[in-house]
Design brief:
The strands form five sheets. The chain has a six-stranded mixed beta sheet with strand order 6-9-10-3-11-12, with helices on both faces. A six-stranded mixed beta sheet has the order 18-19-20-15-21-22, sandwiched between helices. The radius of gyration is 24 Å and the shape is globular. The longest helix has 16 residues. The chain contains 18 helices and 22 strands. Helix content is 35%, strand content 25%. Bound molecules: adenosine-5'-triphosphate. The site of adenosine-5'-triphosphate has 18 residues, from helix 2 and helix 15. This is Putative Ribose import ATP-binding protein RbsA 1. Keywords: ATP-binding, Cell membrane, Hydrolase, Membrane, Nucleotide-binding, Repeat, Sugar transport, Translocase, Transport. Belongs to the ABC transporter superfamily.
Length: 519
């Protein structure tokens, strides 16, 4: 650790307001010893060492591209390290396969290690060892065993229920229960709360904390520093593949933690909106879509309107209808006073409506294409004779890289080789390059680090200064409050009420959301 980082760690500890949470004293469950990994000439992990105590929740922190997922993959056995050792409960598992490590109780659950949606909860829990009788699956025994497992983890759902019908938080709990049922010693959770609403997040965190009492340890990767401060007993910060700081997490302050992660102070961006009436950019009249509407909503020049509501209650569906991904069954949409066709994504884009999905992997990028191609997809810069203009494409890469600090090898690198947060930045860059009249943003900062989040907020603000109208979904009430001019609250597919600029506090937004969650 460099002296300046030691000082920063010391400052961060001194500034901390929270009670000091001592790290557990038992011998470590996991030891990572001097691990190296390179893709090409540049090391992604450069002599990383850390240890995780028994029953500890160990925060693994770092900017986008710092090496957190790579380290998780090396520990779990998805990726081989070039050098270094992994010890689980004192045993060197470095040369063991992924399955052998799992059998010893080491699991990695990423946001996308999802469940089998069309199978029941019980099948998901017990696969691949379903109880059998005379060679056939014993369904009664299966649901009995699974039911007991659910009960012992206070998850109140029938084991016969289709797993795909669970909400996002319960899906993640299901994956964790499956791991714990297999006698997990250590579970790595890679951004477990990304995209969850505040109450779901809190619920999941409390539940994870309760699991440590059973002796399970966790490595917890998150870009939400408040979560790490609340939950973790110990932490390691990675910077450019090296350990920049580590220690007991309980007394780290929020600012101190941000400084350790980025290596400098992070200046929080707070947008100054204006209550003055603005000429309309998008006028939505009587818009109906499957499960929602009619919606009447006008967003003016340079205005940001936040949409609040539970999954399935309208906000996502409205954005997807405007983006041409769900069919509008009636109503109309005007953009700059002209009727907009929104029957397909292409029509919506032609009308000046650009959409950022929260599902980066499923529908955001084309994994096998380069960064430059992804930035220009559907909007190729042309030159005389309609040939694609390579220097135009490179200009876009340069702008995205500078504006959002994207960690990449170069414009021709495949986007799938970027870290998750850096992929998100490229997707946002693609939208901004289209110079849309209307931006539809569903969780624009999902998976991005503390510094990049502020960059992205500034870019959204810049867009509003050019007159762009923005509809925003953000689960974090603080993020919402910092960006929007007003909020509309959805219930059962309709707009139930709005919060104007005067009443727009973080608490009011959180309350609006939790009222909906309780009803
Ligand atoms: N298969 C790969 N080929 C080439 N480079 C890769 C590959 N996988 C990861 N990298 C590079 O390794 C670096 C670390 O990526 P990693 O995904 O570990 O970061 P991270 O800390 O998890 O970031 P994030 O917070 O954005 O998820 C990045 O620069 C990434 O581009």
């Amino acid at each position: 650790m460099r002296q300046s980082d030691r000082d920063a760690a010391e400052d961060a500890r001194r500034e901390g307001e929270g009670p000091f949470a001592p790290a557990p004293t038992d011998g470590p469950v996991l030891v990572v010893d001097n691990v190296f990994k390179a893709y090409g000439p540049v090391p992604v992990l450069d002599g990383v060492s850390l240890s995780v105590g028994k029953g500890a929740i160990h925060g693994l922190l770092g900017k986008n591209g710092a090496g957190k997922s790579t380290l998780s993959n090396v520990v779990a056995g998805f990726t081989r390290a070039d050098a270094g050792n992994i010890l689980l409960g004192g045993e060197d598992v470095s040369s063991l396969t992924l399955t052998a490590r799992k059998k010893r109780g080491l699991h990695l659950l990423s946001q996308h290690s999802e469940i089998f949606e069309d199978l029941s909860i019980g099948e998901n829990l017990l696969l691949p060892d379903l109880p059998r009788r005379h060679g056939f699956v014993d369904w009664a025994a299966l649901h009995r065993q699974a039911g007991l497992l659910l009960e012992s983890h206070a998850m109140h759902a029938s084991s016969r229920r289709r797993a795909g019908d669970l909400n996002a938080s319960d899906r993640r709990r299901l994956a964790i229960i499956k791991a714990v049922a297999g006698d997990a010693k250590l579970i790595i959770l890679d951004e477990p709360t990304a995209g969850l609403a505040a109450r779901e997040r809190q619920h999941l965190m409390e539940w994870v904390e309760a699991l440590t009492a059973r002796g399970t340890s966790f490595v917890y990767i998150s870009h939400h520093n408040d979560e790490v401060r609340q939950l973790c007993s110990e932490y390691t910060v990675l910077r450019d593949g090296k350990v920049a700081a580590s220690g007991a997490a309980g007394s780290l302050s929020a600012d101190g933690m941000a400084r350790l992660i980025t290596g400098s102070d992070v200046k929080e961006f707070r947008r100054v909106g204006s209550a003055a009436p603005k000429p309309p950019v998008v006028e939505i009249g009587g818009l109906c879509f499957p499960g929602g509407g009619p919606i009447d909503l006008t967003v003016g020049r340079g205005e940001i309107v936040g949409l609040v509501g539970l999954l399935g209650e309208g906000p996502q569906e409205l954005l997807r209808t405007l983006a041409g991904l769900l069919p509008a069954t009636s109503g109309q949409v005007l953009v700059d006073g002209r009727p907009a066709r929104i029957g397909s994504p292409g029509h919506s884009l032609d009308a000046g409506i650009a959409y950022l999905t929260h599902d980066r992997i499923g529908e955001g990028h084309v994994a096998s294409m380069s960064i430059a191609e992804n930035l220009s997809l559907g909007n190729w810069p042309r030159q005389a004779g309609w040939a694609i203009n390579r220097s135009g494409m490179l200009g876009r890469v340069r702008r995205a890289r500078e504006a959002m600090d994207v960690v990449m090898d170069g414009p021709d690198q495949e986007i799938r080789k970027l870290s998750g947060g850096n992929q998100q930045k490229i997707l946002l860059g693609r939208l901004l390059e289209r110079n849309p009249a209307v931006l539809l943003l569903d969780e624009p900062t999902i998976g991005v680090d503390v510094a990049a989040k502020e960059h992205i907020h500034r870019l959204i603000d810049d867009a509003t200064r050019r007159g762009v109208a923005v509809l925003l979904i953000a689960q974090d009430p603080d993020e919402m409050q910092r960006l929007v001019d007003r909020v509309v609250v959805f219930s059962k597919g309709r707009i139930e009420r709005s919060l104007s600029a005067e009443g727009l506090t973080v608490d009011a937004i959180a309350d609006a959301r939790s009222l909906r969650e309780k009803s």
